[in-house]
Amino acid sequence: MLVPGDLEFRIRRQRQAEGVPVDPVAWEQIVGHAERLGVELP
After folding, report:
1. How many distinct helices (H) and strands (E) make up the chain?
2. How far apart are CA 34 and CA 31, in angstroms?
3. d(C-alpha 36, C-alpha 21), whole Å
4. How far apart (Å, rounded) are the C-alpha atoms in residues 16 and 4?
5. What is the number of other CB atoms lying within 10 angstroms of the CB of residue 30?
6. For residues 42 and 31, what is the distance between their CA atoms, to the nearest angstrom?
7. Contact 9, 16 (CB under 8 A)
8. How far apart are CA 1 and CA 38, in angstroms?
9. How far apart are CA 8 and CA 25, in angstroms?
10. Which of 3, 4, 6, 18 falls 20 to 30 Å from 34 in CA-CA distance?
């Protein structure tokens, strides 16, 4: 049984532990822009 906010709490805890999922295509765009701007990514 879930109560309001349970799912969001679980997702938040998972993302704090594992990071936020990013679509591979979006990530490649981010990397491309970072390289162009000289920004170092983690």
Report:
1. 2, 0
2. 5
3. 23
4. 20
5. 13
6. 11
7. no
8. 49
9. 25
10. 18
Does residue 42 surpass a pLDDT of 90?
no
E strand or H helix that includes residue 10:
helix 6-18
> What is each CA distance from 30 to 10, 16, 18, 35, in whole angstroms?
27, 21, 19, 9
Terminal Cα distance for the chain, rounded: 39
pLDDT, tens digit (0-9, with 9 covering 90-100), for 4-41: 999 999 999 999 999 999 999 999 999 999 999 999 99
Distances (CA, A) of 21 to 1, 25, 42: 26, 12, 15
Q: Where are the beta strands (DSSP E) in the chain?
A: none
